[in-house]
Structures are given as C-alpha cells and as structure tokens.
Amino acid sequence: MTGPFGVSVRDEALRADIQAGLAAVEAHLVEATKSDVPFITETAQHLVRAGGKRFRPLLALLAAQFGDPHAPGVVPAGVVVELTHLATLYHDDIMDEAEVRRGVASANARWSNSVAVLTGDFLFSRASSIVSELGPEAVRIQAEAFERLVTGQIQETAGPREGEDPVAHHFEVVAGKTGSLIAVAGRLGSLMSGAPEPVVNTLAQYGERIGVAFQLADDVLDIAGEERESGKTPGTDLREGVATLPVLRLREMAARDGAAADRELVELLAGDLTDDARHAEALAALRAHPALRRARQDALAYADQARRTLDPLPDGPAKAALAELCDAVADRTA
C-alpha cells in the first residue's frame, strides 16, 4: 500500500490493517457529512468526495498500532482529525480567495463565501459531536488543538510583531496551523488504542514535528517543485505575495549581508508578480539562490527531529512506517 507522499507500508499484516482502517474512516466520513437538508449534504461532501491524502487518519491508525489497533475509538479518532482538517480547508479557501481545491472548484467559488464558511462550521460541529463520544480527555485535546490552529492562522494574518524574527514567527505559525492537528492524530490514535502515556506523548510530539516538516517542504516545493509533484503551479504562493520560508530566508540574508543582488531580488519579490514575465524572473532567481537551500535544510532539520522522537518506541513495522515519512520529506525537497 502506498500512502501519502509515496510512503509505503511494507509489512503485509500492517498493510492490510491500515487499508481496512482507512476504508472504515472513508465510510464514516461519508456518514458524518450527511444532513437531513440535501444541500448541506452536497456542500459538506464536496471535498470528501474530491479525495485527498488522508494523511491525518493514516497517522492515527499507525499510532494505534502501539496499543490495540482495533479498539472502538481508533477509527472515530481518524474521522475527527480529517473532518477538522476538511473544515479548515473551506475556511482557508475563503481567506485565500482560492478557486480550486483538490482538482475541483472550491466551495466558495462554486457557491459563495457564506456557504463555504457555514459548511466549514457544520464540519467542525460534526467533528465535535464525534469527539464527545470519545470522552472528556479527547474533547480537551481537540479543543486545545483547535485553539492553537486558529491562533496560528491569526498570527499569520497579523504578521510578526515589531522586533520579532520573521523566520521564528513562521515556524510558530506552521506549528500552530499545521503541526497541532497532526499532533492530535498521533495523540488520539494512540490514546484510543490504550497505548501507555509515554507512548502517546511521543507520538503527539512526532506528529507535530513531521507536520511542520511537511509544511516547510511545501514552502520549498512552491519554488523548486514541478506541478506533478506539488499538485499546484510552481510559484503560486510567490505570485500571491505569500512570504514562505525561502522568501523569509532571502530577506534575512539581504538584511544581514546587504548584497546588492539580494536586495534587488527582495525588491522584485515585493513588486507585482501577477505579470508572467516578472513572475518567471523572480521564480528563476529564487530557485538559484542559497536561500532555497537554507529552507531545504530547515525542512530536513524538522524531519530529523521527528525521526529522533521515535527512538523510545519499540521497533516494529509501525515505527518503520513512521520513520519512512521522515524519509519522504527528504525525497520531496531534493
């Protein structure tokens, strides 16, 4: 079985178990997005049926292998984190004014911003209903992660405070926006399986670190990748003026070293990149700049942290599969 980012589960018994778990998650996602109002069902299932990597449920299922992977709360845990993730996508597309998501029209483009934001809220409510059945500890975990997720989004919107290091601010934003929910996948999956508390904490920490690593790798891919790798046109964030990690590292180098060429590139990136010629020039220059290499190193450093987090866990197929996710970061940023 090949999972997100080309990660394979090599052990046959584990592969069969994970495949069955993901199929159950998918069936539950469809049920959880049904409503007595047909239009709500249509909008809520819009992105579910468009597919996706299902990375968060996969991590929850792998984390459950350190306890009883067939415990009744494991599949619902995977559903909770995926529903929450899907809800954030509806809201993200509104803020980004995105027209396409997962190869289909975004909900805001197909219907309206109002429909998209309310559908996202509907999915959050369904995730909350499911997690309430998993017990008060699960509710607390989900609530705290949701607070961090929203805080990260607000921090990104507000930008770094005066005197704050923009790169450190970016890492904090990514940990909140992306890492927090992936940490929940590791924590809830293992918690519902009855894994020991130290194992649960380890898998939550791993989830956050691998989540940050993959998001930083996405920053790199926006500059260095091809469309077939990233699923979007290279330089999309660049064109939209989003300051991803390579841009932040460039600004840092320009401010520190003061090289004329670096300052000129910073000015180019700060200008209007909706013009195709200017966009192509900026993309080519940033691809050749040492800032991109430094951003790769940052992504790999987080992936290495995630790998080392796994050290206390018992060896076995599940640990090997989690370690392979770290290898996948290197493959994506190479």
Summarize the structure.
Keywords: Magnesium, Metal-binding, Transferase. The protein has 334 residues and is mainly alpha-helical.
Description:
This protein has 334 residues and is mainly α. The protein has one domain: Farnesyl Diphosphate Synthase (Orthogonal Bundle), CATH 1.10.600.10. The chain contains 16 helices and 2 strands. The protein has a two-stranded antiparallel sheet with strand order 1-2. β1 and β2 form a beta hairpin. α4 runs antiparallel to α8, α9 packs parallel to α16 and α15 packs antiparallel against α16. The longest helix has 28 residues. The model has no long low-confidence stretch (mean pLDDT 89). It comes from Streptomyces boetiae. Its cofactor is Mg(2+). This is Polyprenyl synthetase family protein. Belongs to the FPP/GGPP synthase family. It holds the Pfam family polyprenyl_synt.
Keywords:
334 residues; single chain; mainly alpha; globular; two-stranded antiparallel sheet; Farnesyl Diphosphate Synthase; Polyprenyl_synt
Set down the secondary structure blueprint.
Blueprint (H helix, E strand, L loop, with lengths): L11 H21 L5 H7 L10 H9 L10 H23 L3 E2 L2 E2 L1 H4 L2 H20 L3 H23 L7 H27 L4 H28 L2 H4 L5 H4 L5 H13 L2 H11 L5 H12 L2 H20 L7 H17 L1
Antiparallel strand pairs: 1-2
